[in-house]
TrEMBL record:
Protein task: NAD-dependent lysine deacetylase and desuccinylase that specifically removes acetyl and succinyl groups on target proteins. Modulates the activities of several proteins which are inactive in their acylated form.
Cytoplasm listed as a keyword: yes
Name of the featured protein: NAD-dependent protein deacylase
E.C. number: 2.3.1.286
InterPro entries on file: DHS-like_NAD/FAD-binding_dom, NAD-dep_sirtuin_deacylases, Sirtuin, Sirtuin_cat_small_dom_sf, Sirtuin_class_III, Ssirtuin_cat_dom
Family matches, as SUPFAM superfamilies: DHS-like NAD/FAD-binding domain
Catalysed reactions, as listed in the record: N(6)-succinyl-L-lysyl-[protein] + NAD(+) + H2O = 2''-O-succinyl-ADP-D-ribose + nicotinamide + L-lysyl-[protein]; N(6)-acetyl-L-lysyl-[protein] + NAD(+) + H2O = 2''-O-acetyl-ADP-D-ribose + nicotinamide + L-lysyl-[protein]
Lineage: Bacteria, Pseudomonadati, Pseudomonadota, Alphaproteobacteria, Rhodobacterales
Co-factor binding details: Binds 1 zinc ion per subunit.
Keyword Cytoplasm attributed: yes
Organism in which the protein naturally occurs: Cereibacter azotoformans
Keywords for the protein's UniProt record, in alphabetical order: Cytoplasm, Metal-binding, NAD, Transferase, Zinc
Domain Deacetylase sirtuin-type: 1-230
Domain remarks in the Swiss-Prot or TrEMBL record: 2 residues (Tyr-53 and Arg-56) present in a large hydrophobic pocket are probably involved in substrate specificity. They are important for desuccinylation activity, but dispensable for deacetylation activity.
Obligatory cofactor(s): Zn(2+)
Length: 230
């Protein structure tokens, strides 16, 4: 039985109005990632980090899923148990499009985490460093986001699911940030078919068996329809 493993990145949400990171106008060209996306940055200036993620959370809540999110949700619903959807994104657009299961390897904007006791809860629209944890009451609230230098969530499960796949697809991701950048190499080593679906060919395009290029809202629905008709 076929098993599809899909990795999505910022490019799939760009048409929903959420910024990508590495383009010339991307987030990392406007913000110093060392100050807003590392544990060290949070320790140095938690208020700045919260302001950054409060802004991103507000943008997320104002965005709506696009045709690419909806197509992947349809694929999951019509191939129950046979599609693993892993995202590097911290928005909830896959869920709002109707995807029944999404693995957020880099955390979620709508989640809060206590840096003291590890308790997790749903984040309010605005968070502050002195917000008390609902579990331990300590003022150690942080976004439930995997920052640079931290280990992505659920990696053992992700790699186990990838090992069972018959098709590996990357959608809207530069494929340059590890450990996700290594997924295509793992897939190729196991003889798993690979496809890159991006606005334009990425720097690692030679590692993929096939490429579909153009806006995600156009390429992803076309690819999903192809799979469902096969």
């Amino acid at each position: 039985m076929d098993s599809i493993f899909i990795l999505t990145g910022a490019g799939i949400s760009a048409e929903s109005g959420l910024g990508t990171f590495r383009d010339k106008d991307g987030l990392w060209t406007r913000y110093d990632l060392r100050r807003v996306a590392t544990p060290e940055g949070f320790r140095a200036d938690p208020a700045l980090v919260h302001d950054f993620y409060n802004m991103r959370r507000r943008n997320c809540l104002e965005a709506t899923p696009n045709a690419a999110h909806e197509a992947l949700a349809r694929l999951q619903r019509q191939r129950p148990g046979r599609v693993t959807l892993v995202t590097q994104n911290v928005d909830d657009l896959h869920e709002r499009a109707g995807s029944p299961e999404v693995i957020h390897m880099h955390g979620e904007l709508l989640g809060a985490l206590c840096a003291a006791c590890g308790h997790r809860w749903h984040a309010p629209e605005r968070m502050a460093a002195d917000d008390p944890c609902p579990a331990c009451a300590r003022p150690a609230t942080r976004p439930d986001i995997v920052w640079f230098g931290e280990i992505p969530y659920r990696m053992d499960e992700i790699l186990e699911r990838l090992s069972r796949a018959t098709l590996f697809a990357v959608i809207g991701s530069s494929g340059e940030v590890y450990p996700a950048a290594g997924f295509v190499e793992e897939a190729a080593a196991r003889g798993i078919a690979t496809i890159e679906i991006n606005l334009e060919p990425g720097s690692r395009r030679d590692l993929f068996d096939r490429g579909l290029h153009g806006p995600a809202s156009e390429t992803v629905p076309r690819w999903v329809e192809e799979l469902l008709q096969a």
